[in-house]
Specification:
This protein is α/β, with parallel strands linked by helices and 245 residues long. It has a single domain (34-240), classed as UDP N-Acetylglucosamine Acyltransferase, domain 1 (3 Solenoid). Helices cover 16% and strands 27% of the residues. The protein is built from 2 helices and 24 strands. The strands form 5 sheets. Strands 1-4-7-10-15-18-21 form a 7-stranded parallel sheet, with no helix packed on it. A 6-stranded parallel sheet has the order 3-6-9-12-17-20, with no helix packed on it. A hairpin with a 4-residue loop joins strand 22 and strand 23. The chain is globular, with a radius of gyration of 23 Å.
Length: 245
């Protein structure tokens, strides 16, 4: 049976609602203040951080930032880890280790671990909890704990315009071409050609594109309807705000 609500319970709920609003407002202020930008880098001193780029608060683990370069207009979600080198406070030489291009989006909880060079091209979009690493454990010696054996390192390159789905893993030595779709949960190693879709663990090419035959196998869904030319950016923003209401 539902409990009867009376005047006293309604009065008791009022302070809770006020406290809840205060907590939410305070946390929103913390998030705004703790975000990292070129104008407000906080304690982080990246090798470069472009105009319009923002790292949401709270950040994940970040070290080796003098060897990390972020391009313009990037969005780095909450709890994203960005590291250059195997541990903090190393001298990694004159060249950047982790390069992130312009317009890159890294989803919440993603990790980019660059013990050797990792390059992410322009306009790549990562879903949440993507893991990119240039280092892997080795297990050559069956008598030594794996964690105590020296790891193997191999550079990683992700071409421009890629979409990497939630929970995907990009392993050392991966070379991913331009405009590639990496399906959610895929584990990628080796070479991936331009304009391909890869899925699975280990990932394999499941769809390709070329100028003569288009997508093979053919797409099963209709092409999205483009936004009409007469629609302004202000109208799109207003439409988005309506959806959040």
């Amino acid at each position: 049976m539902p409990k009867n609500r009376n005047t006293f319970s309604s009065l008791a709920a009022a302070p809770r609602r006020l406290a809840q609003r205060a907590v939410h407002s305070g946390w929103a202020w913390v998030q705004r203040t703790g975000a990292v930008t070129a104008a407000h880098p906080g304690r982080l001193r990246f090798g470069a951080i472009g105009a319009g780029t923002k790292l949401a608060f709270p950040q994940g683990t970040v070290f080796g930032e003098p060897w990390i370069r972020l391009g313009d207009h990037c969005i780095v979600g909450e709890h994203v880890t960005l590291t250059a080198g195997m541990m903090p406070d190393l001298d990694l030489g004159p060249d950047p280790i982790l390069r992130i291009g312009n317009g890159v989006v890294l989803g919440r909880g993603s990790h980019v671990i660059a013990d050797t060079t990792v390059t992410i091209g322009d306009d790549c979009y990562f879903g949440p909890y993507v893991y990119v690493t240039s280092t892997n454990h080795s297990y050559d010696d069956p008598h030594t704990p794996i964690g105590k054996q020296w790891p193997r390192m191999d550079p990683v390159e992700i071409g421009p315009g890629c979409w990497v789905g939630t929970g995907a893993v990009i392993l050392p030595g991966a070379r991913i071409g331009r405009n590639v779709v990496v399906a959610a949960g895929a584990v990628v190693r080796g070479e991936v050609p331009d304009h391909a879709v890869v899925a699975g663990a280990p990932a394999r090419v499941v769809r390709t594109w070329d100028a003569e035959s288009g997508w093979q196998p053919p797409l099963r869904t209709p092409a999205p309807v483009p936004i009409p030319e007469e629609v302004t950016p202000e109208q799109l923003i207003a439409l988005g705000e309506m959806g959040e209401a």
